[in-house]
């Protein structure tokens, strides 16, 4: 039977066909199983976020300027876990914006990745950026300085501030450079200066609203030099007798050559200080003498520039015997006491020594110590004149006239483009007379003569 089957050609063909079918089914099943395993392996995906990835920008950096591209972006990477971990660890891919064919003006560009495996997907956040492409321009600007009260000790001011170099170069988009209103050098430290200084400062460009502008500055740092001086308020001194002399003695006069001093302190403190009372102790006085007296520092002030003054004290013996002149007696010749407790008879000579006041009006203000490169315009008082109230012996006051007085405003601390307020000093007043001025200060608008010359040249060119 088997021999007949084996010798039959069709029987062998059928058997071979069955074996081939069995083999095909077996191989197909194995391939399907392996494919499922591979698919399951490939679908073991992961995702990671890579933060702060730098953005590279490709454009014509010689002739164009680009703003609006973020410095960094975040990138979410998805794909096979091993590749994701590797890409995050090595960060060997690039995020870029290609603007080589972009037109001048505003546009929205798409960010792309480079050097990332094609088996990974990347999602960039943000994906796009609104950019402004402008013609790249370069201009020179003078450097201003930003030095204020925060940089100075209380009672000090700064003048003659210079920078080295005085000009810097600014490069950037044309429309941004055109917005530059100020180029300022600002001190990096927080020192409070009491003496002249020379420090390094950072240069920044601002628009007219003091917004910082995105431009390139060269050099980015300059040297600032400044002259620091003490400033304050000039106030008169008022001598005040304290203590008592012996019963047989009286103080007839107290005078000093120093009639005013400069007080240092904050503007708020100085605004309420109009004079300084100097106590003079006379309890140890036995005759005419000169004493060195300490000048007290007023409440709220930090310092007085003149620490001590010399006070001349004159005395007289008291006459305890009442005198009568029957030939010339009148009801108005009774003995009287003056303000110092000294008896007097109301004679013309003693009346001349009695303290009194005198006011002289319309004295013009003169300026002094103004830098040669500055000009000052009086702002207050508007008429440029003040009143002076004098206090002292009547005979001395009678000798003082407006023609012998000079009112000075010291502008040594003034700087360009500012409003400068200063106290007033008066010369030509005898040492035994004290004084006050009304108003006590003058205010000036300070400008640079260079600015005036530049404006005149500009007006001449336009005409």
- Measured by DSSP, the beta-strand proportion falls in over 45%
Fill in the CATH topology of the largest domain: RNA Polymerase Alpha Subunit, Chain A, domain 2
For the record, the CATH architecture of the largest domain stands as Beta Complex
Question: Number of helical runs?
Answer: 8
Distance between the termini: 131 Å
Overall tally of domains: 4
Biased composition (Polar residues): 339-355
Organism: Listeria grayi DSM 20601
Pfam family, one: YbbR
Region (Disordered): 315-355
Report what the structure shows:
InterPro entries: c-di-AMP_regulator (IPR053154), YbbR (IPR012505). It comes from Listeria grayi DSM 20601. The chain is of the alpha+beta class. The chain has four domains: 85 residues, Beta Complex (RNA Polymerase Alpha Subunit, Chain A, domain 2), CATH 2.170.120; 88 residues, RNA Polymerase Alpha Subunit, Chain A, domain 2; 86 residues, YbbR-like domain (RNA Polymerase Alpha Subunit, Chain A, domain 2); 96 residues, RNA Polymerase Alpha Subunit, Chain A, domain 2 (Beta Complex), CATH 2.170.120. The chain is built from eight helices and 31 strands. The chain has a seven-stranded mixed beta sheet with strand order 26-31-29-28-25-27-30. Strands 6-4-1-3-7 form a five-stranded mixed beta sheet. A hairpin with a 5-residue loop joins strand 23 and strand 24. The chain is elongated.
